[in-house]
Write a sequence for this structure.
């Protein structure tokens, strides 16, 4: 479109130039006296005006108002809570070990305190105690027949205690210048014999001064007739369970001036069960008869000086070691 107008203007300019040069032209317009018009210059100015492109019309454009970004709300950092790391503990598979916690209501019995050695493998019941660990205790307090007792050669003893889950073990060495045992059954105490007192429930009747169903009195014969004779174990108390105990294993051997005995007593024969730390009322005693012609208890020595059969508070205490 611009080119067309340029051509038109060029033709008009050409015509005007021709006219100004040769053709007579009468100018009627009144001009100022002082001005002498220059037609050619005017035409050129007009042509320049027409040919000069108009500057582009600026279109007002709104400057976009920046939309403010949302203000970020700071997110509080989480509060760190310290969690201690878990300590891994190695789990071992082993036989259960029961730990007995002594009631605080009862004090220990200090009439005599004895510990039973824990056997991981049962000892051989043969009359010797060469395989035994633990402590050797004396039972030399004369608790019966002091007038008949003539000294340590007449009657004195030492002993050891052991245990496992099945048995209470006793090994005894007895000095006795005359072995005499011809009794049996309920009369077993009327000859040379061992005796065990055991309170199977020590703390529940700690202050009870009379025998009851959990207090046991057992006698053991090292041999009827002589040390090589038949062995026997008898329970005298509690009366509801008295009688011979065939499950007790007994072995004996003689030496010059005395004899040895080993016995394995099932816990069930004493109304008890065993675990490390278990505590019982306990007394070990030995009876003596020097008269081979009759059944007679002449004297007794014990591990506890104040032993009274019918008063368990006078007994000592047995603890099963670990």
């Amino acid at each position: 479109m611009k080119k067309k107008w340029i051509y038109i203007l060029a033709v008009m300019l050409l015509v005007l130039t021709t006219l100004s040069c040769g053709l007579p032209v009468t100018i009627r317009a009144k001009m100022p006296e002082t001005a002498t018009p220059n037609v050619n210059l005017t035409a050129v100015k007009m042509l320049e005006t027409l040919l000069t492109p108009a500057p582009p019309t600026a279109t007002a454009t709104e400057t976009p108002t920046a939309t403010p970004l949302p203000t970020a709300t700071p997110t509080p950092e989480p509060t760190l809570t310290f969690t201690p790391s878990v300590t891994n503990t190695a789990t071992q598979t082993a036989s259960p070990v029961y730990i007995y916690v002594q009631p605080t209501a009862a004090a220990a019995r200090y009439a005599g305190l004895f510990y039973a050695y824990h056997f991981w493998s049962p000892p051989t019941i043969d009359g010797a105690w060469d395989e035994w660990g633990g402590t050797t205790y004396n039972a030399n307090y004369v608790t019966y027949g002091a007038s008949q007792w003539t000294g340590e050669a007449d009657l004195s003893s030492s002993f050891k205690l052991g245990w496992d889950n099945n048995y209470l073990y006793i090994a005894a060495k007895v000095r006795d210048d005359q072995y005499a045992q011809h009794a049996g059954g309920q009369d077993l105490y009327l000859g040379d014999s061992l005796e065990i007192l055991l309170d199977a429930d020590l703390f529940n009747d700690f202050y009870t001064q009379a025998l009851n169903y959990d207090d046991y009195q057992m006698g053991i014969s090292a041999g009827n007739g002589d040390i090589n004779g038949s062995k026997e174990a008898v329970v005298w108390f509690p009366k509801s369970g008295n009688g011979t105990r065939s499950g007790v294993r007994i072995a004996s051997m003689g030496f010059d001036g005395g004899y040895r005995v080993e016995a394995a007593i099932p816990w069930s024969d004493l109304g008890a069960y065993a675990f490390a730390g278990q505590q019982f009322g306990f007394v070990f005693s030995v009876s003596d008869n020097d008269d081979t012609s009759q059944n007679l208890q002449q004297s007794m020595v014990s591990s506890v000086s104040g032993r009274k059969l019918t008063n368990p508070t006078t007994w000592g205490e047995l603890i099963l070691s670990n």
